[in-house]
Design brief:
heterodimer, A: 12 strands, about 0% helix, globular, B: mainly beta, 7-stranded mixed β-sheet
């Protein structure tokens, strides 16, 4: 079956540090890949997505590149802010006849200190 | 503005009681989903519905029930058979499959605590 593995947290960084959150996936076929962000006490918001190999998704200074050869979709940001503190989820969707159900990774908590 | 509304945001329940969590969307989406999130963990799919009057079990459907009588609404009932119901519940919806890249739109969540 499909699965998503992301690095365990928490990840603690100082403001303006470089961020990488690793995400790898297992899927039969070619999934769409997503990063969602969850702020404390809230639902999930789509951060960025990529639908085919070598696509780069980007939003709010975050970016991730769909790497088919390494089955990865690592999230990066060059300079984090305190307001980026949240839980980040990597996910995939196969868009098959079963619908658009997402398979989520376990989430990575990011804490940014001033 | 269009979106997904979950209510209540916080709910307390005594053991042995059934509770129903509401989820309403005005995005004209066909498919709706319920996920459960436990502290420090990812999301697990409880039930999903791709069309009105039809729904399917997800990975952890035991102890839960749903209905889909209207396109806009997908309520989740947590029954007394659910052995560990304390969790954060998230409702989501998605556009029709054709031309869709698979994105889900989430509500703000409902936190259920069993006393």
């Amino acid at each position: 079956g499909n699965s998503v593995t992301q690095m365990e947290g928490p990840v603690t960084l100082s403001e303006e540090a470089f961020l990488t959150i690793n995400c790898t996936y297992t899927a039969t076929g070619y999934p769409s890949l997503f990063w969602y962000v969850q702020y404390p006490g809230e639902g999930l918001q789509l951060l960025l997505k990529a639908t085919k190999a070598d696509d780069k998704g980007s939003n709010k200074g975050f970016e991730a590149t769909y790497r088919k050869e390494t089955t990865s979709f690592h999230l990066e940001k060059g300079s984090v802010q305190v307001s980026d503190s949240a839980v980040y989820f990597c996910a995939l969707s196969m868009n098959n006849n079963a619908g658009n159900m997402l398979t989520f990774g376990g989430g990575t908590r990011l804490m940014v200190k001033p | 503005d269009g979106g997904i509304t979950q209510s209540p945001k916080y709910l307390f329940r005594k053991e042995g009681q059934n509770v129903t969590l509401s989820c309403e969307q005005n995005l004209n989406h066909d498919a709706m989903y319920w996920y459960r999130q436990d502290p420090g963990q990812g999301l697990r799919l409880i039930y999903y519905s791709q069309i009105v009057n039809d729904f399917q079990k997800g990975d952890i459907a035991e102890g839960y029930s749903v209905s889909r009588e209207k396109k806009e609404s997908f309520p989740l009932t947590v029954t007394s058979a659910q052995k560990n119901p304390t969790a954060f519940y998230l409702c989501a919806s998605s556009k029709p499959r054709t031309g869709n890249t698979g994105e889900l739109f989430f509500g703000e969540g409902s936190r259920l605590t069993v006393l």
